Amino acid sequence: MNGPSASFALAAHLVLLSSISFGGFPSVLPDVHNFVAANGWVTDREFANFFAVSQVMPGPNMILMMSFIGLKVGGIPGAIASALATFGPPCLMYYTAYRLWDRFRNAPWQRIVRRGLAPLTIGLVIAGGYVMARTGDAGWQSAMVTAAAVGLMLGTRINPLWILLTGGALGGLGLL
Amino acid sequence: MTQTAAANGSGGRVSLGALFAGFLKVSLCGFGGGLVWARRIVVERQRWMDDQEFAETLTLCQFMPGPNIVGITVCVGSKLRGAIGAVTAVSGFILIPWTVGLSLGGLYLYYAHLAVLQNILGGLSATAAGLLIATGIRLLMPHRSRLTALLFATLAFVGMALTKLPLLVVLLGLAPLSIAVAGIASARAP
């Protein structure tokens, strides 16, 4: 527990990040990691645990993951503040943008901006996965599991939940 | 497209309860692939939007920061019932799943120091990282023939994962360049 001022600092940082999280929250995961690690609030191990648990829950994964960090930093109020900071600003923007949608739907500049931003977003998402793969105290076995998950996700139509459960089972059997 | 409160293909006013329940379902079903369920419920089951409008809305959401699926939720709620509809739909999407997730997850994390749970979490974490990387690669596929897109994706990856620069620095440094290159490319090939 680190108290209210830490919760506030975390929430303020999440407001900033959620406002620029083009392509979804995974693209800002590396920055969240750097921020909480620099402040000494959450260890690498805990960060990886939060990520793993939030991924096996249904519903809003990233909101949940930020709430786990908030819970660690400032208890239940910290968790609520983190959740609001994660989905509040984007919701306001979505609402406003939807109202303006008709006006700029066919503007050529919008297409160019989208084409320019898309590759950056994608690079950031992959970076998020890479950083996650490195944070668990990962040996070569874990790297194999990560690689296998990439392969199964891309090459098959298996429900990702089964892939996750298999990874968890391998870990539970002490094989990683 | 109309943005008045009661506009809806099948006529009649969509109840706030139906909005709440609809997006609660999207949320609870959406392991990994939330978008699949959003389309199924919004377009096929409830007919709150047709396919084209849904696709347009998704484009808008991809253009904005934040989780796209929450964006769809806000837009559908806003279309059907205005501001109160947006709030209701988002509440349906988040409130119950978040409470359940935080309680169960919190309980689990409380015992996370136990060796077996620690190992399970390690396995889950390695797998989840792989799924995230795969999602990024999937997103990259439509752009694979654009050399500049691959270059900028790589630069963003390196900036964030290897040099550990703050996101704002990476985005503000690369975005203007990337947009400028896309602008030049589209001017050459209209």
Task: State the helicity of chain B in percent bands.
Answer: over 70%
Instruction: Give the overall shape of chain B, derived from the CA principal axes.
Output: flat
| Rg on CA atoms of chain A, Å | 18 Å
Instruction: Look at the structure and give the mean pLDDT of chain B.
Output: 82
Name the quaternary structure. Answer: heterodimer
Q: Specify the helix fraction band of chain A.
A: over 70%
Strand content of chain A: under 5%
Measure the end-to-end span of chain B.
28 Å
Shape of chain A: globular
What is the H/E string of chain B? HHHHHHH
Query: What proportion of the residues of chain B form beta strands (DSSP E)?
Result: under 5%
Spatial separation of the terminal alpha carbons of chain A: 30 Å
- Return the domain count of chain B: 3
Describe the structure.
The complex is a heterodimer of chains A (176) and B (190). Chain A is an all-alpha fold. Chain A has a domain at 4-107. Chain A has helices spanning 4-19, 29-38, 44-56, 61-104, 108-135, 140-155, 160-172. The radius of gyration of chain A is 18 Å and the shape is globular. Chain B has 190 residues and is an all-alpha fold. Chain B is 76% helix and 0% strand. Residues 1-10 of chain B have low confidence and may be disordered. Classes of the chains: A mainly alpha (176), B mainly alpha (190). At the A-B interface, helix 1, helix 2, helix 3, helix 4 and helix 5 of A face helix 1, helix 3, helix 4, helix 5 and helix 6 of B.
